[in-house]
Amino acid sequence: MAFPVQRPRRLRRTEGLRRMVRETTLQPSDFIYPLFVIEGRGERRPVPSMPGIFNLSVDAAVEEAKAARSLGVPAVIVFGIPDRKDAEGSRAYAADGIVQRALRELKSAVPELQLVADVCLCEYTDHGHCGVVARGEVQNDATLPLLARMAVTCAQAGADIVAPSDMMDGRVRAIRRALDESGLAETPVLAYSAKYASGFYGPFREAAQSTPQFGDRRGYQMDPGNVREALKEVALDLEEGADVVMVKPALAYLDVIARVKERFDVPVAAYNVSGEFSMLKAAARAGWVDGDRLMLEILTSIKRAGADLILTYHALEAARLLGG
Q: Choosing from 85, 195, 261, 303, which is the catalytic residue?
């Protein structure tokens, strides 16, 4: 028999064949769409560094959520931007805070949509850090009760899932205990378990108005060179009661996603963050790349690495392309 006997190209000849043997398939139900909610009404303010992304008043966020659901996107994650900030981020855990009001309205208007509440203080503190600051440093243990209070008020307002993103040690245990003691034992925790101190967050900080006013977050977010530490962080969060774990960012940390998925038999989320989104948008606008094709390729790579859930600003446009 003539060489070669094996001809893998046979199964690549047509789109129909390629679709039949495709190992990783992308679908709208893989996505969680981030929403940035602000005070006011009828507000839809563009985020300059994130084309197509807006700061939305609650009523506008409801319309955006309806659009997401109509395209087959099953969930949104809500970030709140308050009208005033203070040293302890008190509007983060206020029952009438912006994120709590948004959750109530979203749950009422789109009850079938899963609502994820980002639990962190950085958008709510006047210093921009993720916890209470004393003597120029973020205080881990003093921050935990505030995060727990925020998780409870968000769940009471309608959040189906709470997602601590602060990277304080012990936050999952504190939140799990507070939820259970408040009669919210069925509320899952999606932990930002391996959140790196990344340069890819810049556009998000513009959108969420959460740039630190001094220093940076390297003292509590992970060093980009570490992967064994990521596995340790995931293990600790699972011991403390996390139901889903997350790696953030996604694209530059595909190896971390893969290692987490191989090691732990739990749902794994990955955050396709703002810098990843904005770089692609900029290159596409310059005509350097096919934006739609590259977007789907990137999202497929994140899923192929092992992510069960992908938080992405591309969610709506990707869902449209995928026929959501």
A: 195
Question: Does residue 18 sit within a domain?
Answer: no
Helix axes 228-240, 171-181, angle to 10 degrees: 20
- Residue 88's pLDDT is 87
Instruction: Please indicate whether residue 151 or residue 5 has the higher confidence score (pLDDT).
Output: 151
| Number of domain units in the chain | 1
DSSP conformation class of 113: S
Q: Look up the domain containing 43 and give its range.
A: 24-321
The residue annotated as part of the active site, out of 248, 261, 281, 303, is 248
Q: What CATH number corresponds to the domain at position 83?
A: 3.20.20.70
- The pLDDT value given to residue 135: 85
Instruction: Let me know if 195 is a catalytic residue.
Output: yes
The type of residue at 279 is M
Instruction: Decide: 103 and 115 in contact? Cβ < 8 Å.
Output: yes
Q: What is the DSSP string of 56-95?
A: EEHHHHHHHHHHHHHTT--EEEEEE--S--BTT-GGGS-T
The per-residue b/e assignment along 202-226, b for 16 or more CB within 10 angstroms, e otherwise, is ebbbbbbbbebeeeebeebbbebee
CA distances from 168 to 208, 224, 276 (A): 20, 17, 25
Q: What pLDDT was estimated at residue 213? A: 67
Residue 11 located in a structural domain: no
Known catalytic residue: 248?
Answer: yes
**Tens of pLDDT along 98-120?**
999 999 999 999 999 999 999 99
